[in-house]
Amino acid sequence: MASEDVVGKTSATIANLAEEAKIASEGVKAPSRHALLSICKSLVAGGVAGGVSRTAVAPLERLKILLQVDHLSFCFHGQVQNPHAIKYNGTVQGLKYIWRTEGFRGLFKGNGTNCARIVPNSAVKFFSYEEASKGILWLYRQQPGNEDAELTPVLRLGAGACAGIIAMSATYPMDLVRGRITVQTDKSSTQYRGITHALRTVLREEGPRALYKGWLPSVIGVIPYVGLNFAVYESLKDWLIKSRPYGLAEDAELSVVTKLACGAAAGTVGFGALYKGLVPNSVKVVPSIAIAFVSYEVVKDLLGVEMRISD
């Protein structure tokens, strides 16, 4: 009997240890799987936001390109090469003319190529901002007296700048070859058949470094632009929630319209719109940024991602 009791207790102990080990193992793996899933959801939300915002302003993007082509033709040849250029005189008139001559599809011509570039850029940008803001806040809280500090507009500006650098670096080769495809003519020495073909050709004929020609000026230009977008949007949201000037309940979320207004305000302070010079581009920047921010948060809500930018 004694030996049986010993065997029984030993078996029970082994079983308990095995169960504890299993629980511990699952406890280690679960957060890793959860973190990976959260990252994927965040990237998907950022990509969808970029695609939705770019598609929403695709007609204005098409009109801007048509106007730019006409302007360049006039500068180089002394005359407008497009016989219909006069029809593009004015944003509304231009959009009406495209609709009348090319139909609905004409307004969105080239949007697929634009989305192929903007979707990964937007995905990386939003995710990078979240990670950069957490890292910057952690470093800031390591300073004496800042243990309970929250994100400030300056810290958000820094996080946005980091996000802009990372996103630009990650997708710059696509921007480079897209630019080459845009300016190539029938007389160009190299004829690119598309983004993939252009990437392979540049990599084979010019080497990996060629894919990052002009990277530094582009990054310098995007730092204040993206930084200000995030800083203004997040700071405005934070101020509205904390001050509650419109009688918001304690746990109430800002409405979509209010978030769109915050995004529109963020779009008005981007340096990029000041240097483009064309009305269609200036008009599209504000709604594009507003839609991108709101789409990102809406998709994250739908996907059930707990983490928020402001967190």
TrEMBL record:
Keyword Phosphoprotein part of the UniProt annotation: no
**In which compartments does the protein localize?**
Membrane
A UniProt-annotated Pfam family: Mito_carr
Give the matching InterPro entries: MCP, MCP_dom_sf, MCP_transmembrane
One GO term describing the cellular component:
membrane
| Gene Ontology biological process terms, A to Z | transmembrane transport
Instruction: Show me the Solcar repeat boundaries.
Output: 37-135, 151-239
Superkingdom to which the source organism belongs: Eukaryota
For this UniProt record, give its keywords in alphabetical order, as a comma-separated list: Membrane, Repeat, Transmembrane, Transport
Topology of this chain in the membrane? Multi-pass membrane protein
Q: Which family does it belong to?
A: Belongs to the mitochondrial carrier (TC 2.A.29) family.
Checking PANTHER family in the record gives:
SOLUTE CARRIER FAMILY 25
| The protein, known as | Mitochondrial adenine nucleotide transporter ADNT1-like protein
